[in-house]
Structures are given as C-alpha cells and as structure tokens.
Specification:
- The chain is of the alpha/beta class and 105 residues long.
- The chain has one domain (12-98): Response regulator (Rossmann fold, 3-Layer(aba) Sandwich).
- The chain has helices spanning 23-39, 54-66, 83-91; strands at residues 12-16, 42-45, 71-74, 96-98.
- A four-stranded parallel β-sheet has the order 2-1-3-4, with helices on both faces.
- Helix 1 links the parallel strand 1 and strand 2.
- The longest helix has 17 residues, at 23-39.
C-alpha cells in the first residue's frame, strides 16, 4: 500500500433506514448483512433512532457521501427533506437506490 493511501479491501455499501428502533428496519438490517456476506461486500448500516428525525438521516447520508462509499441504499423518511442530500450523492457519483418510500429528485 502506498503511504497515506487507505484503500478498502472490499466494496462498502451504506444502508440507511428511516429509523433503527422499528422492528421492520432491524429485519432489513439482517437481510442486508446476509446479502453482503453472500456478495462478499461490506455494509455500513446507520439510521436515526426515530423515523421522524429527518435532520439526522440527512447528516448520516452526508457522512456516507463524505466517506465515498461504493453505493447507498436509502429509505427516505421524508420525500422532500432528503432531496438535496440525494442530489449530493448523485453529484458525487455514488449510486443510490431508494426503497420503501418515494423521494422526488
């Protein structure tokens, strides 16, 4: 490895649920872990505790954009509030898939 270069050994995909306190999203987490293991990739699962915490979800999305993950799976908590962050991911060249609910962008 070159000095100062921090290359990942495997691709990393972010999974951002609407909230982590709801059992549905815990099931999604388990499924993402199983799929990542099968695909030989890593996931980083992070979301706000409450589904109504859009500001926290945006901050988490921005963190993953700054980490330059290989892709993002997002369940937007609000169809309008997440749009600027979704556009930032798109502008950063990070593939983003929206699940569970729509977001207009």
């Amino acid at each position: 490895m070159l000095g100062g270069c921090h290359r990942r050994k495997r691709p990393v995909y972010a999974v951002i649920p609407k909230g982590t306190a709801v059992i549905h999203w815990q099931t999604v987490h388990a499924g993402a872990v199983a799929a990542a293991r099968e695909a030989n990739v890593d996931i980083d699962y992070n979301g706000p505790a409450m589904e109504s915490d859009f500001a926290r979800q945006i901050a988490i999305l921005d963190d993953f954009i700054n980490l330059h993950v290989d892709g993002i799976l997002l369940a937007p908590g609000d169809r309008e509030a997440l749009v600027p962050a979704i556009r930032r991911a798109k502008n950063a060249g990070i593939p983003l898939t929206i699940v569970d609910s729509a977001a207009r962008y």
